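To whoever is on call:

I kicked off a structure prediction for a single chain this morning and the downstream step that reads the tokens threw a length-mismatch warning. I double-checked the sequence; it's 436 residues and nothing unusual in it as far as I can see. Pasting both halves so you can look.
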Amino acid sequence: MLDAHVVPRTLLALVVLVGPAAAQVTERDYARAAQFLGPNAATLVSGDQISPTWLPADRFWYRARTAEGSRFTLVDPAGPTRREAFDHDRLAAALSLAADTSYVGTRLPFQTFEYVDGGSVRFNTADSVRWTCSLNAYVCAGPDSVPAAPQTERRSPDGRWVAFSREENLWVRSTETGEEVQLSTDGEPNFGYGVPPEGCCSAVTLARRGVEAPPVLAWSPDSRRIATHKFDERGVLQLHLLEARTGRPKLHSYHVALPGDSVIPTYEIHVFDVENRSGVKVALDAMDAMNTSCCGVASDTVWKDTQWADGSEQVFFTRAVRSYDTLQLYTADTRTGEVRKILEERGKTFVEANGQSGGMPNWRVVNRGSEVVWWSERDGWGHLYLFDAATGALKNRITQGPWMVLDLLHVDELGRWAYFTASGREPDQDIYNRHL
């Protein structure tokens, strides 16, 4: 039952919204409100975007937003020194002269660059045109029409190969000779190697933007092998979305399983040896395709739950079930495909690898594949544990207490330290504040 004092206030609010006052809202009111939308409000904050790009000798540069635009800063922690990465105004003047246009130092037409030849910077402008500018004479050479690396390829750690999916099969291309090698041959429509799954959040968004999703694969650290999936969407029914446009609308159709469907996407894990041109299937039945994260392109696949050991003889991966109450960790021998279950996590509700239903999984293979740092809510709080990868036995807890580990950021294997963000650990603070 509503409180008697609440009803008149509720009615009054409705009258204000639909009564004559609503007609008095002006264009200026909307413009003022629009100032507080995310992209516009972001311009009111400066110095908040610090993403370091590391250089030799432990130096780094970063690009920071300012009230006038942005500035690039070079930092030497050992110095310690902090200075501008280059003379912004002189670089803007040199680039304006070379490009026959007009730039200012606070709004340069690039967001990243690289130091080259000891005294120059190289960068690509928004139209993928590359320039090289001397920091001694401040003269720019170019333009060079050098296309950016395609999103549809994945370069090997040693830089010798790029891997990609073509017509449902996995291929590699030598960066030295351009030779292309087909590693798989039995891919077919809706059952292909390395193909991005359709059935989640971004298939239509990417299509509308004209962007191809990256292939789903992981290079081994030594660049010898590639782990990928063979993703099966055969028989999965389509979902249809109608995009409203000026003139005729556009139909978008893509495969996605809905609750109650009898056919759901599944996948197999395959490992290919690049040098030997051979492949092996991991010896497990087809696994249910599960989205263990939310709302981003990188989350549309289980593949973020796959990790290599130091070499290329072992690959580790998780397996979930459709009820979301079980998560298993496996390792596979990449030469034979033989598989072994390391541990299994069960719960009465969701069992996930990250308590935020998003982000990267909070587990790491360490100590040359002999141990696993694992995140679990087994005691009611999200914490880190250390397991023996050979036996699945718990070796010790890493964290404990009435608070939550959020994201496992780094494991220092030599020093035996784990770096993570957490909330609720510091007293007298909002429990949603994150700390490193």
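Update from on-call: the warning came from a stale cache, not from the record. Cleared it. Sanity check on the structure: The helical segments are 6-18, 27-34, 38-42, 88-99, 203-209.
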